[in-house]
């Protein structure tokens, strides 16, 4: 279900030259990785918290407490 929500959001992120990848889910925390124009973009934190995290909490409120973006070399 997490992947489905992220897939719904990807087209909007891709329109700005970026992308997002689901990495893993552990204990209520969703880990994602930004790609393309999102890497290093000052607005990526807004996209993370107000876009991705809000959408996941809205649709999966009992299972998602936070969304964290990993750097390229983090697993």
Structural features, described:
The longest helix is centred in the C-terminal third of the chain and has 16 residues, at 44-59. This protein is α+β, with helices and mostly antiparallel strands and 75 residues long. Helix content is 40%, strand content 29%. It has one domain: Fe-S cluster assembly (FSCA) (GMP Synthetase, Chain A, domain 3). Helix 1 runs antiparallel to helix 2 (44-59). The model has no long low-confidence stretch (mean pLDDT 93).
The CATH topology corresponds to GMP Synthetase, Chain A, domain 3
Q: Based on Cα principal axes, name the global outline.
A: globular
The helical percent reads 40-55%
Q: What is the residue-mean pLDDT, rounded to a whole number?
A: 93
What ranges have pLDDT less than 50 throughout 5 or more consecutive residues? none
What's the number of extended β-strand segments? 3
Order of helices and strands: HEEHE
Can you identify the CATH superfamily?
Fe-S cluster assembly (FSCA)
Distance between the termini: 21 Å
Strand order of the largest sheet: 1-2-3
- What is the domain total for the residues? 1
Radius of gyration over C-alpha positions, nearest whole angstrom: 11 Å
Key terms:
single chain, 75 residues, alpha+beta, GMP Synthetase, Chain A, domain 3, 3-stranded mixed beta sheet, 40% helix, globular
């Amino acid at each position: 279900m997490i992947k489905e929500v992220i897939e719904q959001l990807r087209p909007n992120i891709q329109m700005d030259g970026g992308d997002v990848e689901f990495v893993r889910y552990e204990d209520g925390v969703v880990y994602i990785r930004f790609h393309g124009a999102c890497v290093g973009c000052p607005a990526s934190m807004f996209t993370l918290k107000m876009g991705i995290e809000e959408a996941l909490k809205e649709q999966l409120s009992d299972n998602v407490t936070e969304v964290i973006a990993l750097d390229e070399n983090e697993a």
